[in-house]
Amino acid sequence: MKCNKCNEEIIQGRIDIGYKECVKCSTVEGYGCIAITYHKTGNTIQIMSKKQSKRIRKLTERRGYGTMLKNI
User: Fold this and answer.
1) 53 pLDDT exceeds 70?
2) Which of 6, 25, 46, 63 has its CB surrounded by the most CB atoms within 10 Å?
């Protein structure tokens, strides 16, 4: 099957889940995730938008933890 926008070939995996555009032409935002630690052996991930996951990861950085770095 060919992409509706650029006429490139679409991989079978995208066709199987119903997409009609190739990856380059797609406007669907990719997914991201954050790690959630319940206990040292009970970890999981939370799947969310890339924008949200980048924001949360930035907010939870341990910048300057245990060092003399200035928090900026």
Assistant:
1) yes
2) 25
DSSP 69: P
Query: Are 6 and 24 contacting, i.e. CB atoms less than 8 angstroms apart?
Result: yes
Residue 66 tokens read as 């245990």
Residue spans of the domains in the chain: they are 12-59
45-69: average pLDDT: 79
Cα distances from 34 to residues 8, 45, 56, 64, in angstroms, run 33, 6, 8, 21
Asked if 13 and 32 touch (Cβ cutoff 8 Å), the reply is: no
The rounded mean pLDDT for the chain is: 83
Is 18 strand, coil or helix?
A: coil
Provide the CA 27 distance to its chain's centre, in angstroms: 14
Contact 54, 29 (CB under 8 A): no
